[in-house]
Amino acid sequence: MSKVTSFSVSIVGLILCTLTLIRCAKEYSYEGGPQASGSAVYTLVGAGGICTSSVIAGDYFAGTALNTGNTIQLHVHVTSVGTYTLSSNSTNGMVFATSGSFTDTGFQSITLLGSGTPTADGSFDVLVKGGEGCTVTIRVNKAQVPQANYALVGDPNSCGILFNSGTYIAGKATDNSNYVTVNVKVTGTGPYSISTDTLDGIFFSASGTFTSTGTHSVNLMASGTPDLPRNLVFTPKGTGTSCTFKIAVQIVNPAAYVLESGSVGATNQCIYNVLGTYTANTPLSLSNTVSMHVYVANLGNFAVATNTVNGMSFSVTGTFTTQNGQWITLTGIGTPISPGTYTFTPEIIGPAPLGGQACSFDITVQ
Question: What whole-number distance in Å separates Cα of residue 165 and Cα of residue 163?
Fold first, then answer.
């Protein structure tokens, strides 16, 4: 048995299931349409407050109609299968809605499609209705004007960050110390607006005017409050240009531990057990878990999460109260897209160079 890596990480958070039970204790059966015996019973994750781990996609400009790229992805906890219809209130000329069927219980994700035309620029809280409901914040940019011609250095791969300022703690709002500096090669002067997608409750953005050509440094300022400890990959986008950079959302009082490896015939593969059945187009439930063996040197908080592969991801957060070898259990969310065998990379959450080191495990989808 060999150890993949040993380190201390700096991350906080609660396992999604625990967070849901605390913040979303009231179960919700939506009654927005004709009541039928086949209506699903489910709870919005984050009900009564901010929608937890929401993902807001697309660009939003005052006076520009929303399209199929303007969506909100939310997480729900389904306790009874059936049909569902979900929509938001109308805010600044925008509405988000979706409908469908849940065929299994457990934690799942849904995507609401936007429609309408934003009437003003600024930040707007959109309430997704149902039970107590939860809110997401949509940033609407000023009406589009002719932009500068430029490219993010590193496009379309890693941005090659010049400077990453500040720390990111789950549950703590970002401030002016949180920003990322990227390089931009300008070939035509004029206004610019660069922003990322919103992940785990935070995003990065910058705007201004390039008055000369050549290479310029731009500070992308962070906004929002991270929900959960995660290793996040952001994609800043400008006018026809994009790249990527990583940010680690940390916890306090981190444990020192390693993900153990040593499976026969595999290189850097975790010591693990897969539970549950995985079927294409069938949402994962609480029975879809992966147990992994770890070795704990110092007690404290921990968080481990995988990348998203074939529509699925796995994660766990908690506190180690005993030392030495033990098992942790990652819970899956999402819906498998296609049959086949897929490799996941669970990472200990934290900043480089310690955080982000990992092993791997395989999931077979029928």
Answer: 6
DSSP of 49-102: SBPTT-EEES--BTT----TT-EEEEEEEEEE-EEEEEEBPPBTTEEEEEEEEE
Cβ density class 1-12: b for 16+ within 10 Å, e for less: eeebbebebbbb
DSSP assignment of 303-337 = EEEPPPBTTEEEEEEEEE-S-EEEEEEEEEEE---
Share the mean pLDDT of the chain.
85
Two domains, one topology: 41-140 and 256-365: yes
The percentage of the chain sitting over the pLDDT mark of 70, rounded to a whole number, equals 86
Domain ranges of the chain: 41-140, 149-249, 256-365
Rounded alpha-carbon distances, angstroms, from residue 141 to 148, 218, 234, 260: 16, 18, 19, 47
Q: How far apart are CA 157 and CA 90, in angstroms?
A: 37
- CATH class of residue range 41-140: mainly beta
What is the pTM assigned to this prediction?
0.60
CA dihedral 12, 14, 15, 21 (to 10 degrees): -170
- Cα 260 to Cα 248, 267, 294, 324: the distances in Å are 22, 12, 5, 12
The residue count for the chain? 366
Fold exhibited by the domain 149-249: Immunoglobulin-like (2.60.40)
Q: What is the CATH number of domain 256-365?
A: 2.60.40.10
Model confidence pLDDT, tens digit, residues 234-268:
999 988 899 999 898 988 888 888 898 875 555 68
Q: Are 88 and 96 a contacting pair, CB within 8 Å? A: yes
Flag whether pLDDT at 128 surpasses 90.
yes
Contact 192, 220 (CB under 8 A): no
Number of Cβ within a 10 Å radius of residue 125 = 12
